[in-house]
Amino acid sequence: MHHNSFVRLEARLKPFAEHISPLTITDSEQIGRPWGEAATDGMVAYGNADVWFSPAARAFGKQLYGAPKLAWFQSSAAGLENPFLQKIGELAEAYTSSHVQSEAIAEWVLWAAFDWFGSGAKRRELQAKKEWEKVHFREISATRWLIYGFGHIGEAVGRRLRGLGAHVTGVRRSSQVSPFADHMLHPDHVSADDIALADAILLCAPHTPETENMADAEFFASMKEGSLFMNVGRGALVDEAALLSALDKGKPAHATLDVTREEPLPEDSPIWSHPGVTLTAHTSALTSESRARNDELFLENLANFVNGDALKNLVQRDAFEAQSV
Asked: Is the pTM of this model over 0.70?
């Protein structure tokens, strides 16, 4: 694990001292054995934000690739399509994912919604000009939402929105109803009329061949004037050129994006400076609370692993085979 993770969790790792020998890596790629060398039956690894956003991320991966046996890998991510995670999924005897970041992402969505419907940009502009002017805004309770990908993230968003009185339509392939949506649709049954009804559209679906460029020129042309478009799923869900062209035409009126097709976003991308775009750098899940929840999941699964119990959020191996096709 990353050195920062170890420092944060060392006291809580002590009960497992008979079973584990921590191996740490710093941002400068220094490998450490804080408890000394010990014989092991294989490697277990914790991949989290400390690693993903570290200069040592590649070196961390090399440690896993070079392990004689990768017995279990705990990821702090929900998605599997990243090439690095695909490779780890193929190598690991057991791979577990995480969905605890859904709560943080849902709050990011609320921030985006409050800022847009609350005329946040106008308020900041007036303050900067020292102009005392009344600003009209819209209550979330008066909005209708269409949420693509009504899984952990979608339901976390829906739960909050319905608590505020908004109308929520969830879109997912499962026919299972949800207490956090007023209405559910299968992706194949979403019509242009459904899109046109929405004041806000949120994408939080995974990237698959079916969802590639799902938000295209036709999709945006169906959106309502004054509407908000948001993406916390994957950048490849959106035809970015079509989005910018649609913003110029006013449908949607604004886009708030946490993900882009290429990350980091190139300096010459027009997304940076487009007046109709609010951009964050794939950070919607980065909260201290989300980090703590992922640590708790790792520790719970570590206890399960040591005791031979079932691991939470175990990913079936065929999921990686499907991703690799």
From this structure: yes
